[in-house]
Fold these 3 entries.
Entry 1:
Amino acid sequence: MDNMLPVSAAPSAFALRPAQSALVIIDMQRDFLEPGGFGAALGNDVSQLRRAIAPNQRLLAAWRAAGLTVIHTREGHRPDLADLPPAKHRRGDAPLKIGDAGPMGRILVRGEAGHDIIAELYPIAGEPVIDKPGKGAFFATDLHAILQNLGIAQLVVTGVTTEVCVNTTIREANDRGYDCLAVADCCASYFPEFHEAGLRMISAQGGIFGWVGNSAAIIEAISQRSDPDA
Ligand code: C5J
């Protein structure tokens, strides 16, 4: 049985059980984080998201060093756009829409350069990458099956954006019985006030959707983990 590690969090300490936990890194994709991508085409300041890169790198390195489960997600669509709801396609007044040719290939289309995960957090062999057509990582994906097969009960969630895909995924996970810890400094939004509100909504009312902590506390906890096989 793996040891339980208390991690300082709101609204209370999170009882991390490393062997039953997955680090889920949401949509750290070039289209959202790099200049010239979809996010920038919508008029967003990508530097707001880029501040989460370094904390994610530190947490990912510690998580990998501890030999724990890592899952990455990417938001995007089939090249024929058959899985793109017309309502999602129509939405917004941006000059570039999903499927249009952009500086990094077709916007949010699987297989295109902009759809891929940024180099700083690139998946390594053995880390599942979930391609999702929606905001939540459970909708129309095999994420739940993968987590069940791995015996995962807790999700440590990072990525972008806090109020959209991170929040949606945590809400979906909560309804499926997972305990979720959102990592504040490893999440980001184009809108700082939405980032703050998105985190507060998770931990409000005694943790209505889960817990909110920071990467330093998690890194410290897992670095003190004794060998579960000893
Ligand atoms: C958005 C996401 N914001 N990954 N996607 O469209 O949050």
Entry 2:
Amino acid sequence: MGTIKTERAFNILMATNRRHYTKTNPYQDWPQNIVPFLGIHVCLNLSSMVLSFHAYSLDALNDKLIEGATVLDVGSGSGYLTSCFARMVGPAGRVIGIEHIPELVEQSIANINSDDPTLLTGGRIQFFVSDGRLGYPAAAPYDVIYVGASTVEVPKTLLSQLKPGGRMVLPVGKYGDIQYYEQLDKQEDGTVVIKKMMRVQFIPLTDEAAQMQSPEVLGFHPHDYLVLPGYMERVSPQVLQQLPLAAPNWAEKLNSKSQDALWE
Ligand code: SAH
């Protein structure tokens, strides 16, 4: 963690301004809920920073997020990673975002419209309100399946929608227990090679009713919501600067700009 290995991931993160995906302080460094009072969180372990986590994910998927690739983004939330994926696969690619909370889908559409509406109007990104555990068979098979919430076991239905040669990345393990961020590569013969990448802590991929229960169920105190309502993953430029990035002149680029101007 804490490293961007590929220049491409760095460039995509730089091109995807978090400001469009959160209301304020888009560059702060802790996981937050995206919509207030809904009990929706991105939760990573304390040693992990969210931006570096996003960088890690894009790095892990870099080889597969090629021009024209088809991607399934399960638990698309704010749409931030959905946009990053769409930028990576280019105009010939296709990204399906599945999210079970309708308000979040509406918000993610508004976010992307504020960032770059052509990602939606051109059909590169499509969102559906549904249960991500079922995937989205109509556009399967996928080169990449990314799951932004944890499951105790790898969902077979999702795996069946992965192309031979494709890659799935997801957090596996019980919520509140040890979870690993895993990379699953489906071979041409259909067998799957699993790589455990790191310890994480994600909210569960669950049904809507369970997610809407009290925040304590997800391990957060309601106070968090009152103090910090409504903002998703926030990362500071200071944190960015500490990352040993591969891209040239990154430190200069970041140092030369104020926080607000960083992503302009
Ligand atoms: N990747 C997202 C954040 C993921 S947080 C981003 O960049 O913003 C996990 C998301 O999974 C939440 O938005 C949550 O609502 C969603 N989720 C949880 N269970 C789900 C399910 N069964 N089907 C679809 N989405 C689900």
Entry 3:
Amino acid sequence: MRRFPLCALALLATLALGACRGPAAVDRARLLAEAKGHEQWLTTGGDYGKTHYSGLAQIDRGSVARLGYAWGFDTNTDRGLEATPIVVDGVMYTSGVAGRVYALDAGSGRLIWRFEPHVDARVHRATCCDQVNRGVAVWQGKVYVAALDGVLYALDAASGRLLWRADTIIDHTRGYSSTGAPEVAGDVVVIGNAGGEFDTRGYITAYDLKTGRQAWRFFTAPGKPSPGKSGSTDAAADMAAARTWDPHSRWDVGGGGNVWDGMVYDPDLDLLYVATGNGEVYARRRRSPSGGDNLYLASVLAIRPGTGRLVWSYQETPGDEWDYDSAAPMVLATLGEGGRPRRVLMHAPKNGFFYVLDRATGALISAKPYVRTNWASGADPATGRMQPNPDADYSTGPKLILPSPVGGHVWNPMAFSPDTGLVYIPAIEGGGVIYAGADQGRRPGLVNVGVHMLLPSSVRDLTGLPAADVRRLSADGPDLGRQAFLRAWDPRARRTVWQVPTVGWWDHGGVLATRGGLVFQGSTDGHLRAYDDATGRLLKDIDTGSSIIAAPMSYAIGGVQYVAVMAAAGGGLWYVPHPENAAYTYGNLGRILVFRLDGGPTPKPPPLPPLEPMPAPPPSTAPAATVARGQALFAADCASCHVNLPRSASADLTRLSPAEHAAFDTVVLDGGLEPLGMPRWDDVLSRADADAIHAYLIKLSNEVYAARQGHRPPPRPAANAAG
Ligand code: CA
């Protein structure tokens, strides 16, 4: 149905070429020819190098004041939206909550087709950071997406019809999920998975683009050494990795190293670069008692897509024990280094160092902190190996670590402008306190980090730690402040050129740079802002009423440039309702928002109704020991979703009605709210466990209720960081 008008248009436009393209006509030649995405935006990062840069300049420093609303599309979901859309020949392809896919007319927003995968609710127990998806891949008439449960789908780009599906998960009883965009590399489409907070051994799998037949699988953590049984296409690389682990490592927990986001294919060198996540369990002395660098955790790997074999690797955080995922998106570019152009890979992972690597060899060109760091002194100039600071070992007591386990920069895409030579990073300053918890053995399919983490705003937040530790950590007081910035970083001079603060440390949306001299960034406060790429001066500010965390992108149709962004808060720490966020006032219904010059005013969602008065909770009568046991169970199994604050994304369990109290066991144990995404827990929790959790919540509800009656601030919820 789409094919004929598109074809006719393409025919008119390209008579000289004599070509007539079908939908989603993306291939190697076209990606190379339209390398800077002038009209199209062909990968999640725009081009082969995923620079998140648009060569369009109709919207520029002068005209951006006229930017206004062109069209919008409601996804009718209320979880985070993190994908950067792809636009090919006037059609937008993008993904939403849990791997839904939308194909839209990019000029009008008209829905062409949608795809909704069936996802088992049980996978929600295995997600640290919301039910998000970071995008699709589009290639030769097909759209590829990985759903939250790890099933990879190939869809017909014209109709959304299912062409093939592949279950990419090796063991569904473990805490695997999938949130990243698939990557097309040579003749295969590659997908990884998340689960580095659970009990998973990370890996990526490649599938034939046309048939979905598995081509190869590369494990990013070695697993228990067992000759001939590594499971990896590259058994030699697996053996090499195993030599950097204690033979008596906690193999049962899996090791982590998950590839949950950054992958980018390099057509010049025929290499697939893969960015790996944190180690698990977090504390290295528990994970690998005799130490070691624990390859390939927190690394960048270069893999030959035709064979699934490793060509080089560079580890950014040796022996990671700070949740320093290196999973952030990578940018490929050519930079003048040492008086000659070098093909480089640029990366700003959670560990706070900005890396420039030679992408042919993996040689380190530079590693400089782009935020405050104290876990490492830098890279050894002779070997390139990072030098962790002995003081960052928390096996002897709580340590304040910079950056915090939230990281200096995570998945939100950074952008590189070849015009300014600058990288625009959504950067997060600030530390976190981390200390080892009790070893409770492996908890199948559940969180297995084995440490506690605090994100202190002040010394007051350290209460509960031993007094000597509080005194020692208090001496670091000035480092406790946290704040996010849009930071313009010069990768050659290795310094910040300009920066602007965001509304808070949790606000670090993805970035778009353009040839119009602009840098665009959305905010959780609901504003889309455009800055001068050379100075950081704010040139345009549009209040959309929708919280934004995803990266904007740009495309053109018929000589009109558009800027588009997906809007809804979520992701890591997704459940915390900051009153500064637009979602707190307007709710969090997902939207795709598109702008052009001389567009109209942006329609805001209707404000939420005022909060209902808190219902009086039932009396708290359970013994203190039961309440304490319930609190511990809640912290282990419930607190990663339920923060118990008004207007958080998951139910505020201090505000249950009498009917909801009566149904508590039915919901927790029997799956009474499975259709709404609340999984059942009867395989983990006994009825006595559920009753203890309920007793704790009733006690907490009474404290909150009493505080509200007395206008005292309610008790602070425990901080929890994952991502
Ligand atoms: Ca992590």
